[in-house]
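Private note to self, pasted from the team thread so I don't lose it. Backbone tokens:
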């Protein structure tokens, strides 16, 4: 069976994955017409905005959209038209953790995937290759196939592929231009293999052939959960060691460096922090935990569960250290939180450690000044409200101020907490910040970002994750 040559692509879901991924496909494949669709009108309007005020901040993304939009890249809310015209459809919708019902708090909510799949089944009148781009539990492709086949028109066949996305926010464009690998899973039937080749040909326009891995459907689905679980596991491992460092006088940076020199371990993803955030790690591990439990593998479930538990512990431990260091009470004190995004170079706040820290500070009745260079104010209010649903937003606003700069956040504060590793926090004029603060002025570095010695010389009392408290040194 010779593979179909893809000429029209539809991507359902114009979010952090669908938007950048399919913009890059459009850029690299000028012969393919790419339409990215979403039900969210405001999001599509932003993608189409004249001043390129895109709905997500990602370094390098605007440049790609400027080159391809209107040429062979289109953004639309007309989902049905895009489905009808396409020969290949990416399903790139959100798969958040279920909030209620069976598996609540663990299982992935597959409602959006199912609705998109049903829409494809209803609208399609010609053969389609349907590609799972969203992160889903193992064997979701089977449910998608059942829905599609039960609703298909005569002479209309569907081939389902799994093609998980491995981009990280903040580096999405380089990850897409030069991926470590592109993974495509298919049924090992002649039709499945042929569909797999069709998608591989799209990527082959810019990805070296040896980096395009083709595997079975279920391996592909599971590999995505496995990759995230193993990345997060490294962070929880180093964070667990950071607690030992704080208690013994060892330095976590030195430990990471020493451990990472072993070529079998490698140096990446060993940076101790106030805890990992982002929309994927926790969600995907909990998904793996749920899958393991459903498969009657409680020991496997408990093993992965511990990665998330350690992350919660790390955040709690950090808040507690702030309180303990500030003479065991922060009531009425002002804390400047620098950074609200879950990592640098993104405006995304999903599962950001900053949310948990601020919630903890508020429950101790402290005042908080928060500054982030990219996160929009409405998002901060929404996140803080969601974190403390029983507290009226007006009360939260009495305790929290959103500051326009790090300098203003530090004015009149007793302590600065670095929650996100934005480069500008390393390079700010710390002497100027020091002058505007109450004394003694404390800095809590949750990201191993600043030069503790330099700040100590200025007069700050510096507490760094994975290093003993100043009193112990
Ligand atoms: N964010 C990341 O860095 C990342 C990386 C790799 C994989 N993933 C996975 O990719 C998937 C998407 O993640 P995201 O961060 O882009 O989510 P997102 O919430 O930013 O975007 C999803 C979009 O899908 C739209 N949508 C939902 N149902 C729809 C429907 N039936 N028709 C049309 N549009 C619909 C939503 O309106 C939303 O704009 C998730 O499964 C996630 O786990 C995310
Ligand atoms: O050594 C490290 C590395 C990361 N982090 C934190 O871990 C979180 C996640 O970071 P990162 O993985 O860089 O960003 P994500 O955008 O969440 O990307 C992850 O999740 C995506 C969604 O599934 C995957 O596609 C990516 O491959 C995977 O890296 C952030 O809070 C980071 O600050 C650390 O604390 N220490």
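Design output:
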């Amino acid at each position: 069976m010779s593979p179909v040559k893809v000429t029209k692509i539809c991507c359902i879901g114009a979010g952090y994955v669908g938007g950048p991924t399919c913009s890059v496909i459009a850029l690299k494949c000028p012969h393919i017409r790419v339409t990215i669709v979403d039900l969210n009108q405001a999001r599509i309007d932003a993608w189409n905005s004249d001043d390129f005020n895109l709905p997500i901040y990602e370094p390098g993304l605007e440049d790609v959209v400027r080159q391809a939009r209107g040429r062979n890249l289109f953004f639309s809310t007309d989902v049905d038209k895009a489905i009808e015209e396409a020969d290949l459809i990416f399903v790139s919708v959100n798969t958040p953790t279920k909030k209620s019902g069976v598996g609540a708090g663990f299982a992935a909510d597959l409602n959006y995937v199912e609705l998109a799949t049903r829409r494809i089944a209803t609208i399609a009148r010609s053969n389609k290759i349907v590609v799972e781009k969203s992160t889903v539990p193992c064997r979701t492709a089977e449910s998608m196939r059942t829905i599609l086949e039960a609703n298909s028109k005569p002479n209309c066949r569907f081939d389902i592929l799994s093609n998980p996305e491995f981009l990280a926010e903040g580096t999405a464009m380089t990850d897409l231009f030069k991926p470590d690998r592109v993974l495509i899973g298919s049924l090992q039937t002649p039709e499945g293999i042929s569909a797999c080749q069709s998608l591989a040909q799209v990527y082959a326009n810019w990805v070296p052939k040896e980096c395009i891995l083709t595997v079975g459907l279920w391996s592909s689905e599971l590999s995505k959960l496995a990759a995230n679980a193993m990345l997060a596991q490294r962070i929880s491992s180093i964070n667990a060691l950071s607690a030992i460092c704080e208690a013994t006088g060892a330095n976590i940076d030195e430990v990471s460096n020493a451990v990472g020199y072993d070529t079998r371990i490698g140096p990446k993803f060993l940076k101790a922090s106030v805890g990992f955030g982002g929309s994927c790690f926790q969600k995907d591990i909990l998904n793996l935990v749920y899958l393991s439990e459903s498969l009657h593998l409680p020991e496997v479930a408990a093993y992965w569960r511990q990665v998330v538990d350690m992350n919660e512990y790390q955040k709690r431990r950090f808040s507690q250290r702030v309180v303990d260091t500030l003479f065991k009470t922060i009531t009425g004190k002002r804390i400047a939180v620098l950074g609200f995004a879950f990592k640098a170079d993104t405006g995304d706040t999903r599962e950001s450690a900053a949310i948990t820290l601020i919630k903890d500070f508020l429950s101790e009745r402290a005042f908080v000044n928060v500054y982030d260079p990219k996160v929009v104010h409405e998002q901060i209010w929404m996140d803080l409200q969601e974190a403390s649903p029983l507290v009226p937003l007006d009360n939260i606003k009495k305790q929290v101020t959103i500051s326009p700069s790090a300098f203003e956040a530090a004015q009149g504060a007793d302590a600065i907490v670095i929650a996100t590793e934005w480069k500008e926090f390393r390079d700010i004029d710390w002497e100027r910040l020091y002058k505007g603060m109450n004394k003694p002025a404390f800095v809590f570095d949750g990201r191993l970002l600043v030069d503790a010695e330099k700040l100590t010389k200025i007069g700050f009392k510096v507490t760094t994750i994975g290093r003993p408290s100043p009193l112990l040194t």
